[in-house]
Amino acid sequence: MIGNKIVKARKEKKLSQEQVAECLFISPQTIGEWEQGESIPDIITFNRLAEILGVDLNYFSENFPSADVQVVGNLSRPERQVLTNFSASDLTKSDFAGVTAHKSKFEVSMLSGSDFSGADLTGSSFKVSDTREANFDGANLTDCNFSVLDLAGASFNKTILLRTEFNQAGLAGAKFTDVTLIDVKLKMIDLRKTVFEKCIFNGVDFEYCDLRGLRLDGLTFIGVKFDRAALNEVTFKGTTLKNVSFIPAFALTNKYYRAIKTICFDGAMMDKLTYATLKGLGADLSKVTVI
What we know:
Layout lengths: L1 H11 L4 H8 L3 H8 L7 H11 L51 E3 L17 E3 L17 E3 L7 E3 L3 E2 L2 E3 L7 E3 L2 E3 L2 E3 L7 E3 L2 E3 L2 E3 L12 E3 L2 E3 L12 E3 L2 E3 L6 H8 L7 E2 L1 H9 L8 E2 L1
Parallel strand pairs: 1-2, 2-3, 3-6, 4-7, 5-8, 6-9, 7-10, 8-11, 9-12, 11-13, 12-14, 13-15, 14-16, 15-17, 17-18
């Protein structure tokens, strides 16, 4: 059913499978699989696909009548996306709100206070740049790379973070609100003053990160690795943890065991494997619910 709707909207838009695939940065074979009903896009790709085909996202739902589909515009091909290089530029407090800038480069640039809200920055690179207090609310940061830069005070509210990488980034005072982080990597980052509220961490790696004293209360962690991360005094009150691993920096030394004992899991819910892992490390699980 979904495949037939994709075919119908694509043909009414007069687009080939290759043209749609180019806009989504995937292979035409994947488009063919969708149209044959062999697989379906994920929710983020569905949003982008709806934009390309000029239809409402609800069009793909079972109860949406195909006869009522309104294809927007009469373009015979999608708008060409030009790769843009903003490197080594002074773009302080610039307005990028709502733009589409795939695979763009924002490297060695001044971007403090810039507004990227609602922008689609898929595949873009931010390296060695000043992005303090930048606004990424509602932006699509799929496959973006943030390396060796300052993101202090930056805002990530309802931001799309899929396969996004943060490497040696300064996140002091940065705020992540109502965000689902999927397959995100955070490496060698001081997160002690970073704020996470109403967040879901799915397949996230915290590698060599400093989380000491961080409040992660009420959040959800699924398939997460705390890989050689500093976790002293972290609180997971009321948090849900499923398939979460805690990998020590070196050997299981007394210092590491003592650090684990300082973590608060009061009111947390966790699966049996996570529970067993933490129990073996000597964590206080007296107020934990096993699910």
